[in-house]
Design a protein that fits this description.
This protein has about 270 residues and is of the alpha/beta class. It is built from nine helices and eleven strands. The chain has one domain: TIM Barrel, CATH 3.20.20.390. Strands 1-2-3-4-7-9-10-11 form an eight-stranded parallel beta barrel. Strands 6-5-8 form a three-stranded antiparallel β-sheet, with no helix packed on it. The two termini are about 25 Å apart.
Length: about 270
């Protein structure tokens, strides 16, 4: 049994993304509508996800485009306000993701009671956001300093919009990441949010580290969820739950329910005949 059962309540878990709208300081923040509107839209999406039956929710500043790798204080403060206002309405386990800043994700988790974070913890990349470096040793020491030892760390090892500076095969990355860092999970992604995770890459990662939780991190939809969940231990789902399946839209509860009905059918014990 993996930690998914203990923390999220089920194996083959589906973690749904609650994408926050642009926040103060972001280029696309709507100053006229302000933070009250951000909170209200997050509330709407949260309830659509929960009522649709997801196993867990992860709050992220998805529309803070273009992303920073050293996130500003005002972003974390705004995310803390949103989650704080919604805390009494959150009925499923939840995590946070401050894109793309691992230490600030931990800060937000410690402040809000989040159970997990997803981040780029390791590696050096050539990315759309410039040369992207990490410091996992400092990050996990920061986790200890702020009393967030209980927070599960989901390591994204195929970063979106980025490529390792040094060519390394995915099996080597997976094995060395597990050996050196003891991640709670590895996340395997496509090129961007909503892009399908390559099933062959997903299988190569899982075969390389069979005792580690591996999650399909992007592009899981109704037409591929059985294929993806047969290989992976769970999935992070965002775009597939949106109106018309478009990244920029809000959550469609009917789409969530249809997806989760399929997942629950897949998870039912198979009866031998």
């Amino acid at each position: 049994m993996t930690w998914l059962k203990e923390v999220l309540g089920t194996e083959k878990a589906v973690i749904a993304m609650c994408h926050l709208m642009a926040l103060p300081g972001d280029p696309y923040f709507d100053k006229e509508k302000g933070m009250d509107y951000v909170v209200e839209m997050a509330r709407k999406d949260l309830h659509a996800l929960q009522d649709g039956g997801v196993d867990a929710v992860m709050f992220s500043n998805e529309f803070s485009l273009p992303y920073l790798t050293n996130v500003k204080t005002e972003t974390v403060a705004a995310m803390g306000r949103v989650i704080g206002e919604l805390k009494s309405e959150i009925k499923v386990p939840f995590g946070v993701n401050v894109l793309w800043d691992a230490k600030k994700s931990l800060d937000l988790a410690a402040a809000t009671g989040a159970l997990f974070i997803r981040e780029i913890f390791t590696g050096v990349y050539a990315s759309d956001f410039g040369l992207w470096n990490t410091n996992v040793g400092e990050t996990v020491r920061h986790q200890q300093r702020i009393g967030a030892e209980h927070v599960k760390l989901l390591f994204n090892i195929v970063p979106e919009a980025a490529k390792y500076v040094a060519e390394r095969d995915i099996e080597s990355v997976a094995r060395s990441t597990v050996f050196n860092n003891r991640p709670d999970a590895l996340c395997v992604s496509g090129l961007t949010a909503g892009s399908r995770t390559d099933s062959q890459i997903l299988k190569r990662v899982k075969d390389s580290v069979p005792d580690t939780v591996v999650l399909a991190n992007t592009g899981v939809r109704r037409d591929n969820l059985i294929e993806q969940l047969t290989i992976a231990d769970g999935a992070v789902v965002g775009t597939a739950f949106k109106i018309d399946g478009k990244f920029e839209n809000h959550v469609d509860q009917a789409r969530v329910k249809e997806f989760m009905d399929d997942v629950n059918t897949f998870r039912k014990p198979k009866v031998a005949v």
